[in-house]
Amino acid sequence: MSLHSTQKKNAEALQSFRDSDVHVHWKGAAEIVLALCTNWLDVDGSTHEMTPDKANHFRKYIEDMAEQSLRCVAFAYRNLDPKDIPSEEQRINWELPDNDLTLIGIVGMKDPCRPGVRDAVELCTNSGVKVRMVTGDNLQTARAIALECGILTDPQASAPVIIEGKVFRAYNDAEREAVADKISVMGRSSPNDKLLLVKALKKNGHVVAVTGDGTNDAPALHEADIGLSMGIQGTEVAKESSDIIILDDNFASVVKVVRWGRSVYANIQKFIQFQLTVNVAALIINVVAAISSGNVPLNAVQLLWVNLIMDTLGALALATEPPTDQLMKRTPVGRREPLVTNIMWRNLFIQAVYQVAVLLTLNFRGRDLLHLTQDTLEHSSKVFNEFNARKPEELNIFEGVSRNHLFLAVVSVTVVLQVIIIEFLGKFTSTVRLSWQLWLVSLAIAFISWPLALVGKFIPVPQTPLKNLILKCWPKKKKQGTHGVSVL
Q: How many Å apart are CA 205 and CA 27, to the nearest integer?
C-alpha cells in the first residue's frame, strides 16, 4: 500500500514481512520527515535516540546541501503492529501513522539548470517580463537555484522577495495583492499557493503566464492568461488546461513564445498603420474631388487595385515580418493599451497629409504641370510607404529587409503589376502611358515619403493614449446624485 501527500511534501508505503513484521516507510522533504523522527539508524544498523543536538546536526547537513542547490530527500521508517492495520475495505480512509519514525538517511539530489536558461531569464527580464519561481523546495534550495538561474540577483534577499508558501497562504486577499508584485521566489509552496499568486497578480492588472507539468498545476494553468505545459513530462490534465505545450520542456522555449507573440502583435500594428494611411488618402481625395468638381479621380477598377495593394499584397508584405531582437527590448503591452498607438497616429497623419496634398495638387493642376493621371503617383507612394510601415518606431526602415524575402517579392510583384497596368492596360484601367521622365518624377515624389517619415519620428508623442486625451478635453456631464439614499 502506498500513499502520496502534496501538502505534506512526502509519501509513505506499507510493507509487511513474513506475515509478522510490518514497516511503514516514509520519504519526502528532508526537514519535514526529520521533524517526525524520534530515532535514527546508524551505518552498522543500530538504532539511536534522536536527541536535539543530533537533530540540529542533521538540519545543518540539510542546510549545507540546500545552499549548494541540492534537493534534499529524507527516508525513514517505523514498525507497526499487524493488529493495528485495518482490513482492505477499511484502508480507504486510513492514514498511516507518521510519528515515532526512525531516520534512515538523507540524500541531496542535483537538478542542474539547462544550458541557456540563465540567458533566457536575463532576456525576459530585459524585455520587461518578470520571471518568478514557485517551487516545493525549501527556501535555501529555492534561493540557491534562483541565484543560479538569474531569477534572484541578491544572495541576501529576504521577505517578501523570497517567501514561504504557508506565509503567503496566511495573508488575506488585500495583503496578497500588496506583496505579489514583490515576490520573486516562493518556496515550500502548494499548488493552491501558485493559484493564489496568479489571482493576486491578475488583480493587480498583470498579464500572467504560468508553466507547469503536473495534475496539481491544472488550476493555475487554467486561471492564468497564458498556460504553458510541458510536452514531455507534463500530464494530460496539465496539457488540456494549458494554452501552449512546450515540446522540449525547456524554459528557453518560453522566450520564443514571447518573441513570436510580440512579432505577431507588431505585424498587425504595421498593417493597420499602412491600411489606415491608404484609406484616409483615398477617402479624402475622392470626397474632396467629388464635391469640388463632381468627378471622382479614382474609378472602380483603380479603387480595386488600391484595395489589392492595401489588403492582399500589403498584408502579405507586412504581416510576415520575422521576429527580431529589437522586439525583446520593448516593454510589455498592457491588456488595456490601445492597438493603434500615438506613434502610429503620428506616422499615419504625416504620410496621409503628404499623400493627400500631392494627390489634390495633381488632381486639380496635374494636367497643367506634368500631364499625369492621378493614378500613377498614388500607387508609387503606397509602395514606398510600405517600407515606412515596416518600422513604425525605428529610424532605419531598411534594417533586416534583405532577410525578408517575401516582403521583397511582394514589393517587386507590386511594382511589376503597376508598370503593366500603366503601360499596357490603359483602356481597362483608364490610364495613359508615361515617358521615362515622368516615371522618374513619380518615383522622386514618392521617394520623399522616406525622409519625411525619418524626420517625423523625431516628433515626440505623449505617453497618454489619444483616446484618453480626447476624453479629458471632452466636457463631462454632471451626474445627478441621490442624497440620503443608500443602495445595497
A: 40
Q: Domain locations in the chain?
A: 3-110, 117-254, 267-473
SS3 73: strand
Whether 487 has a pLDDT exceeding 70, the answer reads no
The domain over range 3-110 is classified in CATH as 2.60.40.1730: no
Provide CB contacts within 8 A for 313, sequence distance 6+. Answer: 410, 413, 414
The single-letter code of the amino acid at 32 is: I
Please enumerate in sequence order all residues whose Cβ is within 8 A of that of 21, keeping only pairs 6 or more positions apart, or say none. 79
The total of other beta-carbon atoms located within 10 Å of residue 460's CB is 9
Q: How confident is the model at residue 371 (pLDDT cuts 50, 70, 90)?
A: low
Nearest Cα neighbor of 117 from 146, 88, 153, 75 is: 146
Buried b (16+ CB within 10 A) or exposed e, 448-457: ebeeebeebb
Nearest CA to 457 among 382, 385, 392? 392
Please report where in the chains the cell 518568478 appears, as a residue: 132
211 contacts 231 by C-beta, under 8 angstroms: no
**Average pLDDT of the chain?**
81
Half-sphere exposure of 426 (CA within 13 A, CB side): 7
Residues 234-284 pLDDT 10s? 899 999 999 999 998 888 888 888 899 899 999 898 888 888 888 888 788
Q: Where are the alpha helices (DSSP H) in 294-404?
A: 300-307, 314-318, 342-369, 374-390
Examine the pLDDT at 382 and tell me if it is beyond 60. Answer: no
Nearest alpha carbon to residue 421 among 304, 322, 276:
304
The fold of 267-473 is Calcium-transporting ATPase, transmembrane domain (1.20.1110)
In whole angstroms, what is the distance from residue 57 CA to residue 173 CA?
A: 39
Q: Give the span between the Cα atoms of 343 and 339, in whole angstroms.
A: 11
At 484 the pLDDT is 34
Tell me, what amino acid is at 107? V
Query: Looking at residues 428-449, what average pLDDT do you find?
Result: 78
pTM: 0.72
Cell 488600391: give the residue. 306
Q: How far apart are alpha carbons 230 and 221 in whole angstroms?
A: 11
- CA gap 11, 5 in Å, rounded: 6
Q: Does domain 117-254 have CATH number 3.30.420.60?
A: no
The sign of the dihedral angle between the CA atoms of 331, 334, 338, 342 is negative
Single-letter amino acid, residue 119: D
Q: How far apart are CA 26 and CA 75, in angstroms?
A: 6
